[in-house]
Design goal:
Layout lengths: L5 E5 L8 H14 L4 E5 L5 H5 L10 H7 L7 E3 L5 E4 L8 H5 L8 H15 L7 E5 L6 H9 L2 E7 L8 H14 L5 E8 L6 H14 L12 H5 L7 H4 L4 H23 L4
Parallel strand pairs: 1-5, 1-6, 2-4, 2-5, 6-7
Antiparallel strand pairs: 3-4
Helix pairs in contact: 1-11, 5-6
Bound molecules: adenosine-5'-triphosphate and magnesium ion.
Adenosine-5'-triphosphate (ATP) binds next to α1 and α9.
Length: 273
């Protein structure tokens, strides 16, 4: 492989903590910073797919890739963001865990599909993406395990609310398990605080607590609660295209720069972070 593509899973088994919002907007920010990005929608809810304005029924979806063995490149679709491609998902994915559950290699379906895709890019003299982001469903089941097996690193979005840290130890245990049995070089890029409300003292307190517990594992960038971020998906756009100057766009650009900086050294050296 000539290019060192970085694959990042956006994971938290808690629902509604900002995984999809971060996947879409971090992907768009990295693309705006000149990176080519492939976003893989691993969630049967298909929120990353609709949030990027892609119709639910694309010719091939991630289901075809994971269950039927369709090559990933045949499921790749363009988005309205230059430099950002998508592997779409829809409700079919909800049957994927059952379909592959008893098969050999059930934990490495996505990993192998991505590996073949990246190798074929090189063989065809096509540019492989700089980053692959995987938007995970709110569960620690087989789909998320596939993402952990396929990734170089993990980003964990945490909502700035009282129960933010609950469930985090379970998540960290699952990452350790994936590391031990499937993917020894997997690392946690960082925990990312989101939906921060500066008028709410609880937000401030949660952010301080999380930093105290997790130290440098927490991204410097905090994503504010911002209505433009919440509105953007109904227009099928990342917030950067919907309202480039709002606080949400600025924060996701900062996050993009931070992620890029964390990975740059590894990209240069051809190493894991
Ligand atoms: N920074 C933010 N400011 C305001 N609203 C936000 C922000 N981030 C996310 N939201 C909103 O919060 C809700 C949950 O976000 P999102 O869908 O990204 O979470 P998720 O973790 O992907 O959820 P699920 O677990 O169901 O996949 C959405 O309505 C989204 O628009
Ligand atoms: Mg989601």
């Amino acid at each position: 492989m000539t290019k060192n593509t970085r694959t990042i899973a956006i994971v938290n088994q808690k629902g509604g903590v900002g995984k999809t919002t971060t996947s879409i907007n971090l992907a768009a920010a990295l693309a705006a910073l000149g990176q080519s990005v492939l976003l893989v929608d691993l969630d049967p809810q298909g929120n990353a797919t609709t949030g990027l304005g892609v119709k639910r029924k694309t010719e091939n979806t991630l289901y075809d890739v994971i269950v039927e063995g369709t090559p990933l490149r045949e499921a790749q679709v363009d988005t309205n963001v230059p430099g950002l491609k998508l592997i779409a998902s829809d409700m079919d994915m909800s049957g994927a865990e059952i379909s592959i559950g008893a098969s050999e290699g059930r934990t490495t379906r996505l990993k192998l599909a991505l590996q073949t895709y990246l190798e074929n890019c090189t063989a065809r003299n096509e540019e492989a993406p700089d980053f692959v982001l995987i938007d995970c469903p709110p569960a620690l089941g087989l789909l998320t395990v596939n993402a952990l097996a396929a990734s170089d690193s993990v980003i964990v979005p945490l909502q700035c609310e009282f129960f933010a840290l609950e469930g985090l130890s379970q998540l960290l245990k699952t990452v350790e398990m994936a590391k031990g049995s499937l993917n020894p070089s997997l690392v946690i890029d960082g925990v990312m605080l989101t939906m921060y409300d500066k008028r709410n003292r609880l937000s401030e307190q949660v952010a301080a607590d999380v930093r105290e517990h997790l130290g440098r594992a927490v991204f410097k960038t905090i994503i504010p609660r911002n209505v433009r971020i919440a509105e953007a998906p109904s227009f099928g756009k990342p917030v950067l295209l919907y309202d480039p100057h709002c606080a949400g766009s600025k924060a996701y650009m900062d996050l993009g720069k931070e992620v890029l900086a964390r990975h740059k050294k590894a990209i240069k050296q051809g190493k894991k972070v």
